[in-house]
User: Fold these one by one.
Assistant:
Number 1:
Amino acid sequence: MSTTVARGRTRRRERRERGALVLQVVALVAVLLLSVLLAIGLGPATVAPVDTARHLWAALTGGTIAADDVTEYQIIWQVRTPRVLLAVVVGAGLSVVGVAVQALVRNALADPFVLGVSSGASVGAVSVTVLGAFASLGVHALTFGAFVGALAASALVYLASFSRAGLTPLRLVLTGVALAYGFQAVMSVLVYLAPDGEATHAVLFWTLGGLGAASWGSLPVVAAVVAVGMAVLHRCARPLDVLALGDETAASLGVDTAAVRGWLFVVTSLMTGAMVAVSGAIGFVGLVMPHLVRILVGASHARVLVLAPLVGAVFMVWADLVARTLAAPRELPLGVVTALVGVPVFLALMRRRGYLFGVR
Amino acid sequence: MSTSNAKAPAALRLDRLRVEIDGHALLAGLSLDVAAGQVVGLVGPNGSGKSTALRCVYRALRPTTGTVRLDERDLGALPRRDAARRVAALTQENGSELDFTVREVVALGRAPHLRGNQALSRRERELCERAMADLDVTHLADRGVLTLSGGERQRVLAARALTQEPAVLLLDEPTNHLDLRHQIELLSLLRRTPTTVLVVLHDLNLAAAVCDRIGVLAGGRLVTAGPPERVLTAELVRDVFGVTATVVPHPLTGAPQLLYALSPSTPPGDA
């Protein structure tokens, strides 16, 4: 008798939980679409959401536009749309990578750049500026240089931290942090030797990050890498949960911790490399969005990996909007905005919910 | 009240296990048989290789030489997930990086049985509920594991191991952190389940109460193994642990019980 009651209760809770997640996803997708539409319309030249939608519709379906509207159309379609979409991609991607990297190195302070990827990208980009590498690639040389630098840094961290026990969390973090100092030193030398201020500018862009370089040319590549990476990581939700219980327990549950860490490292490095190459190292988002989402919906990766990208994307769209409009026509560095807006929100939530992480 | 029902218990055999790390032999040719359905205890001083032996069985460690056999099949030759479907472990890790709910942690016991993000079936959900009831943690189901006391968490992790529906259950000092009542309850649960159990215990009296057989380890080797009343003698305790003890039969069960005196010179007839 009591078993039947308990069974009914289990089933009801199951339905309620699944329903809640679907509802959260639907609501966030709606908010994201609305945010994108608004953000594309807002800027030095403000376009009403209805007109924005009309222009987007025309662009997507190949419709015609009145001659008067051409400038507006250009701004909407060539400048703002790729930028806002890049905000979506990078916001979602950094949040997901943050979740994965925190699980990979078992450290609450980890973010996508803790393994030296961003400083590697900076070295790559600055080398292009100073030494003229990859000149044959034209305008894409800088992006390509940053990507190569990011991957080279990842490979170096991987090799340097690899030991008989596989990739152990602490070795990874220590190696990443140590090598980041090395890369920064190399970068300083390059800047010091550079004949003009161009290198300094490149360094600034890659260390603070920004979406000003968004274009239809680079967007599909980043979007594809991030989307595939997100799908792969989402399939690893359960092993990620298991990893949080500790390596011994993970082994007893049939999870090959060394193999999972290796895969996580490769996937997160590729995703971070692709994002850093086009947007630099936008801080804060990848560190804090994972925590924010866990505060709101709990720690289970099956939920966090679905909701974190949506929350991150919405946050990034608005942060970029603030960055490009608040002091217009000048642009604030995006990393500054993400921190100024995000930190108070995060602190408030953390205090209210009694959030726990890694207490033993 | 029986928890495991799906899988028949398996016979476990440690066959000349040798583990060397940086030239140190943690295990120096350990052999031990655990018959199907038996509860076998591993006792021995610190560093005698008890945990190392368990780690070889739950695949956290690959023995330098020797094999672990499950019903005569080489466990090391199985894919990890397949092995984890047959062998569950309650390790000494008592923490979690993330604040999962108790119910979520218990459900992770199904991880080796599920592919990708496959959801738990109804039977598996009920299995979780039953394991939580058996370990007296149902009232904590929606609490975060990081808000629990060490003992409560230990019971949650034990429930997780039972949810794995193993043929062999390994426990490394399962009574750590547990209060007296829950120590007794956990050990009587081990007696009740049909699963084969290999358990590391420090408390020799609890080991005598719960185990069919006890294996005594020292220096990575098996000193002796057998039923508690044959193994737990004053002589052995002195030789292996360097402690003088008086052995008396339990007035109710007849199991050997050890009484200690703190001062080494006190016991009469000291050898």
Number 2:
Amino acid sequence: MLTVQRLSYRYPDGTPALHDINLQIAAGEKVALLGPNGAGKSTLLLHLNGVLRGQDGSVVIDGLTVNDQHIRTVRARVGMVFQDPDDQLFSPTVFDDVAFGPIHMGLQRAEVEARVERALAQVGMAGNEQRMPHHMSLGQRKRVAIATVLSMSPTLLALDEPSAGLDPRARRGLIELLQELPLAMLVSTHDMRMVAEVFPRTIVLSQGRIVADAATTTLLADVDLLERYGLERP
Amino acid sequence: MATPHLLLDRYIDAESPLHAQDARVKLLLTLALVVALALLPAGAWVALLVFALIIWTAVYQAHIGLLRTMRRSLVALPFALVAVTLLITRPGELLLSWSFGPWRLAITDAGVTAFLSVLVKSWLSVQAMLLLMSITHFADLLRALRQLRLPPVLVAILGFAYRYLFIMTDEAQRMLRARECRSAALPGQPAGGSITWRAAVVGRMVGTLFIRAYERSERVYVAMLSRGFNGNLVSLDERPLSPNERGFTLLGTAAAAAVVWASYLFG
Amino acid sequence: MNWQNIADGLVLGLHIPDGFLSAPVALIWWVLTIGALALAVQRVGVELNERQVPLMGVMAAFIFAGQMLNFPVLGGTSGHLLGGALAALLLGPWAGVLVMSAVVTLQALLFQDGGLLAIGANVFNMGVATVAIGYLLGMPLLRTFGGKRWGLMLIGFITAWLSVMAAALLTSLQLVFSGLSATVVFPAMIFVHAFIGIGEGLITVAALAFVVSTRPDLVSSLAGFLNKEALQQPVDKRTIGLVTFVGLGFAALAALLSPLASGDPDGLERVAENQGFLERAMDAPYTIIPDYTVPFLGETPLSTIAAGMIGLLILFALMYGLALVLRGRSSDSRTRS
């Protein structure tokens, strides 16, 4: 479903950020993306929907190559959720924000409302349409942020550190939400316990390269590898 | 993520006598140069060449890259379109003329001179500014402004604005990116919503940014209070300019004035 | 981002670089700006407390960043905020002037967006005039219509639109006094900004409505005039449509009337000459269109309008073309960072 081939990216000032990235994700597969800060996790996620484009290599999603021609369609397929929900939520009410994607896609009013309702129900925030992000807890805002892309019916979720900063209860709720959502996902995180619970497969990124891509159980048993890349055992 | 900060700050770190010079001297001389350029009559090519050579020598001396400065100095170019009309509205000897339909477009020699003069003046002024900003830390420039008797409140506002510019533009860029990521389309379906809707979305983003900025300023204020800020903007006593620095500034200004004077005299 | 700024700045066209203003014109506006700033500094000192210093600094950063928030309008051009009217309505006149002046100054220093000698004129156009319009017009209107939602919308729209027009008008005036042709500069600037002002108006309205419904406590200058309950309700589509319609009418009217406003450009230039602003003789024939008339229409106002329109259409096409070229160059730099 998602195929990344020989993807390389350098920042405009020439600093290399990603080098020769190859990966595939099947429909419905949930994959964790680990690695120290600055390893290129966020940069890789931003390539999936074409916000960044590599100088080399290709990203193909549902048979569509990420390029100028397909970019708008690709953005409906890949639901990108940023780490800080305050960046993601730029509208005054929850409804406006969750409706942004569907309205932009040119859907009819009834369809927009149905999608908003469904997306909010999926993240357990039904009935909060008229609330302001401003007045909600971080956990709630994270859920709404996920709803803002679910309303676009994506096939892949790309989440950037979804559990960072959450209190234990909100984190627990998020883990359950990720387990329930029947979508493929690539999730960058430092939360090893969440990785063990939610993601059958894990990719480790270091200095812009994939240094490990294996079943999570295998990977977590490899003490050497964990040590080398500064990862903790859950 | 790459930062846009490099694009916001023109300062180029290098070791040079120009970098080490007091910011007041650099600011005043730049101002003198820009004023001199503005005072030049149209067609004072020799004077323009003199100023260009002064700027380019300084750029070379400062090790900030002649090419880079040239490239960056193109920012004011689009505005030149406004001056295009000079070509065809000055009386003078006819150089070229076209007729199409009932209209006639005529370019005169005086028009060409006026247009090119404006263009070159503008281009050199931008280079002078770039030079100043490339060899002077913004903080030093602020201090210079304060020493040159700009009201402390204004300097303080500029200082805070500069400090939070990076944070606010980052925030704005992240919002734009979040919007971009959800600006999707379905195949065969017109996308983008209505123009008023798009404007309203931006308006609310602006409102959101305002509230976040306001709240941040309150936190900044509390942090200042907790470190003893009592409403007075104090700064350390600054040394006055040395006789040498004064002399240098005066000399430079006088030289610029002389070039302008000469160009009227012999132009 | 760099090229992006330029493309936007080009469309906005209000940051005068050095070289375009004659020294006397630049100087006069320096004097006016210094006067306005001195007054603002004094009044801020009297009316506000020290809390306002960090606030104004951060607010200047906010306006700067807010100007980056744009939305696509038509084929590659984009609408975005200038912010003068918004600053006046949100922060009050004196703080508004200081904030906007800081923004314009920083743009000149950091981006060379507007010249050094031209800072006086640019600060006055974008920092003083816009805020003055926003406040002088906004406050009486607020007193009359402030309690109603549509009232706030209309006030936001009108003040924002007019503040852009005022800035464009002043910019044109300065350029004309500096020797550029009034017959092209005036109609072109005013025509283009009549439409840019609509974007400004829409953004200002939406931003105001949002702030007022979310944190009405923050806008002390507005608070006295607002009926919070009425403003809490979201604004419906029909109101937006109506306000836009009225604004469009305004804009079209101004565009049509603008050549008339400068129907006697020679008069304007004669003033300039008498004041000694111009060293060059300005009895120039307008050779772009002989005698500045369209032959078959004769020497009528209609002919002046037609001639002005043709001139500004040429200019507009040029600017538009360049904007597209710059946009093409910026598309890859826009996606970084």
Number 3:
Amino acid sequence: MRLLPGTPAEAADMIRAARADKRTLDIEGGGTRAGLGRPRRGDDTLSTRALSGVTLYEPAELVVRALAGTPLAEVEAALAEKKQILPFEPMDHRAIYASAGAPTIGAVAACNLAGPRRVRVGGARDSLIGVRFVNGAGELVTSGGRVMKNVTGLDLVKLSCGAHGTLGLLTEVTFKLLPAPRAAGTLVLDGLADARAIEAMSAALGSPFEVSGAAHDPARKLTALRVEHAPESIAYRLDALAKALKGHGPARRLDEAEAESLWRGMRDGQPLAAGAGPLWRLSVAPSRAAALIEGLAAQGFAQAWLYDWGGGLIWLSAPASADGARAIHAGAAQAGGHACLVRADDAARAQVDVFQPLAGALAGLTRRVKASMDPDFILNPGRMYADI
Amino acid sequence: MSEILFPEPDAGVLARREQILSDLAALLPAECLIASEDERRAFETDALTAYRRLPLAVALPQDTAQVSALLRYCSQAGVKVVPRGAGTSLSGGAIPQEDALVIGVSKMNRILDVNLADRTIRVQAGVTNLAVSEAVAPDGFFYAPDPSSQLACTIAGNIGMNSGGAHCLKYGVTTNNVLGAKLVLMNGEVVELGGASFDAPGLDLLGVLVGSEGQLGIVTEAVLRLVRAAEGARPVLFGFDSSEAAGACVAAIIGAGIVPVAMEFMDRPAIRICEAFAKAGYPLDVEAMLIIEVEGSEAEMDAELARIVEIARAHDVRVVKESRSAMETALIWKGRKSAFGATGRVADYICMDGTVPTGQLPYVLKRTAEIVASYGLGVANVFHAGDGNMHPLIMYDVNDPASQAKAEAAGMDILRLCVDAGGCLTGEHGVGVEKRDLMRHQFSQADLEQQMRVRAAFDPQWLLNPAKVFPLDGRVSG
């Protein structure tokens, strides 16, 4: 059965009814990221598609609020009119999953999305300041608000962000915004091996020039560094950056169109996204990324890869086998982070850990938190972990 | 006299005090346990000094294992625990209870690892906020959240309260600058949340921990994000003939696509108090002043300031005064950061901390003045204008119970005003005991019960800092 609530109150009624009938629910927004997480196994599907529209936009206060099913493109178009942006460059999963449809603002929050600018401004979680959601008991709950400084009560905003709909159905989300950069420029270093490229990116990110993108494509041996600021500053900052990095070889400036396409591609995991094989996404301490990849490649668990976030994010083409998953999760943990199997067929995603397995007491705590919001475990069952 | 209620102490725990003390003594070196009344006095309050409660005992553990042993014992013995950083909470977040053990993190104050390549630092949670920045300052880095109490306050307390500061307009608050935490749960279990990567695996439990006011566990270590300092920074003073003009100027600057590092507001009483203390060169003949700080190279700062000055002129700015030296810059910030201390020299005060949408600032300032005047008291306003985080300092006489009651009533009226204007009760000081009973003004019962159920997932017996945040009646545990 497919449920299509037209209002948050109606969504609450439907979730209460599902709980009473002991039916589980898969939550769906635009449907462009259905392959993210463990395979769906809900009895029914609840879509946010009819919960749509920007409900508050105050450009002078840098804040926007929208119902969860609002197409992201609609929100971004409204912001563009006032030269403002969602700061964190939310990625688009359509290339990875070869999916169609319109990504929604609710999924941006539910999946805690972020693109290259994360190194400078944080991810969706850092800009999300308010949520309304329906918990697994069918109650409408509000947390946070529309002001950017707010420590009133427990922060269920952060908790909802990146929970992949397992704690509640987001019905409305409020983000703080930034003015769109007035200008941007991208510097490229050529020919660097992984470890050297990461050193260069660390040096750039540790410079005073507010680098807002630092990515490396080993296939092209291309290291890209982005600066965003006032138009009159770009040439100065790129020059100063090139000087600071002169130990890493000569730098050249990309033209604007090429740079824009590079960052857009990087945001969406390109060119690896374009393939069809299993794809992993690793979040690690940047200084440990190159050694991690070297180790995985030696075991045959790394076919191709890309670095974003100065090495802190790795897109990795590697097997979704049980051995591969074990090695990748263990390696990511050792490198100070974690791994997620972003693309693989349903059978593979049912058999291996898609998200990083939780260590020790964290598993029990996670389960208790889930139960505190969705007592009968009816929302997105098994999406993140088999028993949650 | 006191408006704020504290729960009746558990008589059973008080009767067992000697036994509990001897049990605790087995878990800690002798110098880490404080039992005498004299020494406990040092812990009976925090920066909400109008209220004080003598704790059952105070433990100052040296490491995570000791914290774990203490919490496991307290959990089994049914003893409440009040976590404590440096005791600088303005909302009473660290005020003890007679039947509770205070666990302070002050002995865990080492910096464990600095990693400039990854721009992270791992610290024990009792390290002070300023010590973190000082450790990396020679390399040109800093830790961004900079609460006024940064000389004394601890990272553990910052995490508990999600502390902000003057520069969070650009750099975010604590929750945006903490990557990982080692958390000891009430049952003694130790969990690692987040780590050295940009985002944490699984549910964002780190996100719910930050700002949880010591109700979810005790943080013993943290991984913090470091930021490279800009090439230069320059604060500029803008004086206006009215608060409304200053407020409108703030909105216009943001509306023009400029987000300065800091935009701080002071009204006439605050300017006078701070200038008398810091001799920072603040203009004394204006009704309102903004401190706006810009960053970058000299040329970049000149260009951004030119745009800001143009906007300020359109809002009838009367005084524009740029810092011309590092010493002037330091004085300008010293004046602002000592606002609370300087006010404390001329009067007793309580500091409210509501946030409002910036468009509502002129209205809320006007109503705040009216409310405080209606109680026959005075107010100085000094706050973070860029994010609408108000800090009215309501001045009263602590030796006059009637005056204190009036100040508290005025404060509560102002907080209700902030919520009604679309904002919230607290932007960075926390709910503590002070605003606990106003929570129902901002949240529905369903909202609060959901928060309480999440809280109970961490501490099912409600032993951790239980008199804080949530109204004392109607609590839920599962």
Number 4:
Amino acid sequence: MSYVLGISAFYHDSAAALIKDGQILSAAQEERFTRKKHDSNYPYNAIEFVLSHAKIKLSDVNHIVFYEKPFLKFERLLETYVAFAPRGFQSFSKAMPIWLKEKLFQKKMILDFLKKHDKNFKDEKKILFSEHHLSHAASAFYPSPFNEAIVLTADGVGEWATTTVAVCRENKIEIKKELHFPHSLGLLYSAFTYYTGFKVNSGEYKLMGLAPYGKPKYVDIILKDLIDLKDDGTFILNQKYFNYSTGLTMTNDKFNLLFGAKRRNPDKEQITQFHMDIASSIQHVTEKVMLMLAKSLRDEYQIKNLCLAGGVALNCVANGKILKQKIFDNIWIQPAAGDAGGSLGAALAYWHIDLGKIRKEINLDNMQGSYLGSEYSNEDIKIKFDEIGAKYQKINDDTLLEKTVNDITEGKAIGWFQGRMEFGPRALGNRSILGDPRSENMQKNLNLKVKFRESFRPFAPSVLREDVNDWFELNTESPYMLLVADVKKEKIIELNEEQKKLFGIDLLNIKRSEIPAVTHVDYSARIQTVTRETNEKYYNLISKFKEKTNCPILVNTSFNIRGEPIVNSPEDAFRCFMGTDLDTLVVGNFYLRKVDQDNNLKTDYINKFELD
Amino acid sequence: MSFLKEIYKFILVRKKFWLIPILLALLIFGGLFVITQGTAVAPFVYTIF
């Protein structure tokens, strides 16, 4: 038996993953334990979890692999500062102390941290380093159902690479080409996230959600002045307009002049039609780049399968476009496509590439639905709820599903907590807030009263796999909510003449389809397909809802409020339940109604988490 | 010592010898500077490292 522990940390989204003889055992993000969104600290709790889940000690782990190479990153930093000198001195003087004090000595730092799990741990030779984009590529290819695939990874930046193309066969990954910093699709998208007043590295979703409210008016400016896009999808960013290489911000004054407005101050300024048009434009350009890259790769390598990873792979709208154009026969996207997934990729890369181990089974879903996190038995849950003083009913599965579905059909918002926590940014039916997609008010209510976030943000549908094509223009698996497709024409409600004149946020109040809560203003939806094999309880719940309503779909949004990591434990779930307008909480076989709870257990929840 | 060995090997592999004087200067002067400082906190909107 051989264990490999993968770690990602010290940048953003720290995480740990454990594999045993090449099989994925568990993986979790540190943020879920520390309750600090995108926590970048050493993932002490996540490592403790993966070790305890496997019932092993740190000394039982054979190899510990960090997901990127710090020396290579430092090389890129130094070369960048030299290239831009004397510009960037301020950034240089801020960055160097961090590197010279901590980051350059990461091996020792990791060793010291590992001693916290086991003070006798001394085996420095067990600590190894993968490359950032190789970790992403490995996380996308090895758990995929393909024996051969092109892997495209794109994110902000790793060491040097920002976009990587690899040809993967059996247990081998061959990196064919890379785009290097500062030319980065991820950083381009983040620059616009910053410009529209959202938080970089977490607000990208908002920008994507905002895009359908706008018109792509600025595409020509972006393509003419910001990005030199070649026919094969590769590109160069015009650094004249960006500040991320040497400054403390993403964009500069020239960028403001180009678009005729300053960056939006989120504390003082509302989102206007201008910001929606900007969002639409950068989304359009991102899709164009991804499509061109995908097409050129298909032509060049003639391989029919595509795997995606890296933060840009979380742009499910772009993913949906690649699928729709049928550039590749099959697409598989790593659900933890961001840096957290790098921990898993680092472990898998070491196992298959450095140790040369073959892939034993190539299943449809070696990621196990991404349900790789912590879980709680009914006994554990009872102890926790008794300690808190929660009022609950413990009921069997059938009654639980019946009661939950009844609540959903009455328009209630449900906190649904079952089985193992998801790995990656999406809640996939184990740490989810659920609602009725047919309800006209659900989107607004969930956004404003439960999630405390902007009303424009869309919600995703979980749909039974066998029914997906009856409701959406999609007929493939999308188990990780990473593909966007349109709602079927026959389910859409046409706008009247009056409504057609509306634009921007006013579009939100119009009933656009039979499932308005999950239909975005452009009639698209970010789909999760659910199968009995992957998540039986969730499948049964949706089936029961279908039995009652003839609708095989539920609204599924992550079980958290804005700025909060998704709930990890029953206590987290109860706190979120009491701090929001959730009506019902279902944890394991425990059913809790808000009206039964002691009001003194309510907490001031909304102010606990920073806006993202 | 293991750090020095590793960085030496790294420079040999990467063949970017022109970085050596910069690195040395940084390690000597920067090291002294850092030792006298408190915790390093990044004020960046988005750190590229």
